[in-house]
Structures are given as structure tokens and as C-alpha cells.
């Protein structure tokens, strides 16, 4: 059986109403329950996709002056309800790795 | 403005204008209609939610079961495909969870392009 972090989160979100509510209300506490240590300063936004909802992803607010030649990449993700999707700044990759490692360490 | 820049211009506004950004987050359909023109968002029983990228935030969009099938097989299938969107300056666009929404998005974009004919943004 798939024992990944993604599988565990999804299983509980689908089958355990208490966990499903908690992970949207207080994701840090929900992840702590399954042995995930979230690095300090990292915020989490976790939602279960609804099939009747379009999700519009918008770039971050920036106080830096607009650079006319900068590129805003654009994407569409079709049939996304059948995917587990992570969205994060590239600089938080290391923090995600730490979360995965803590899940693995705490769920031998 | 080139029609292809209409969507980019909206992203740039959302990067620079906190008030417009908050209005869109609080009421996405109204925010889209406000910027792109009245009637941009088609009528129908669907919602639009905003996923704002933030420099300190990891976002997870969990899969959704098909017809409430939460069996092991369904879970394995949903978690076999994992998609990472890692951004530097930012990325914009839509997640379309279900086929039923395909034409909602296409109609919305058609409405935007129609509104833009001869309209200065």
C-alpha cells in the first residue's frame, strides 16, 4: 500500500470527519497528529477540492516596483480533483523536505 | 492592449493593488466581473475560490473522491498522481477539478475576450 504523506493526509481527510474539519481549520495541529513537524514560520493552507468549484491561483502580492519585462507564468490544471496538488514558493522546498522526513521518521 | 495581455494585466494588478486583491479574494465572481466586465462569469451552480500565493505559505489542494468512493483503490488512484507547482515570482491560472466545469472556464474566457474588443484596460 502507498504509505506516502500525501496518501495519509488524503485518507484521513476523506474518511475521518474530525480530521477533515481540523485540517482546514488548523492545519498545523492536524499535521502534528500524524507526525509531521512543520518548520517554524511556514504557514499552511489546506483545502479539499470541491468538484463544483473553480480554483483561481493568483501570484503573490509584491511591493517591489513593477518590472515590465518580468514574466508571470500561467497554467491550467484540468481534472485536478484527481490529483494531490502542492503550491509553494520554490524557496520553501527545503521546508517541505523536512516535513516529509519528519513524517517518515515518526511513522516507521 | 494585445488580447493576450489581458490576463497578464490582471495578474499584475493583483500583485500591486492590495484592495483589488482583497475584493477578489472575498467575492471572486464579483471581483472578476468588476475587472473584466459585467457578465464575465457565466450563470450557474458553481463557485470560484481564490488561491493566493504567499511567500511564506505552502498550499495543498487535496483530491476529491468520485461519487463519494473512499475505498483503498480510489485513495491509491487519487494519490498516485502528485503535482508540485513551485513558483519564483508567481504563477497564475485555474485548477479545474471536474469535467463539468470545462465549459464554464472556456465561456468565461470567451466573455473576457469579447469584452476586450475595443475596450481599454
TrEMBL record, chain A:
UniProt-listed InterPro entries: CN_Hdrase_a/SCN_Hdrase_g_sf
Recorded GO molecular functions are: catalytic activity; transition metal ion binding
| Superkingdom of origin organism | Bacteria
Q: Which Gene3D superfamilies match?
A: Nitrile hydratase alpha /Thiocyanate hydrolase gamma (3.90.330.10)
Protein name (Swiss-Prot/TrEMBL): Nitrile hydratase
UniProtKB/TrEMBL annotation, chain B:
Q: Which GO terms describe its molecular function?
A: catalytic activity; transition metal ion binding
Q: Specify the superkingdom.
A: Bacteria
Record-linked InterPro entries: CN_Hdrase_a/SCN_Hdrase_g_sf (IPR036648)
State what protein this is by name: Uncharacterized protein
**Organism whose genome encodes this protein:** Paenibacillus stellifer
Taxonomic lineage: Bacteria, Bacillati, Bacillota, Bacilli, Bacillales
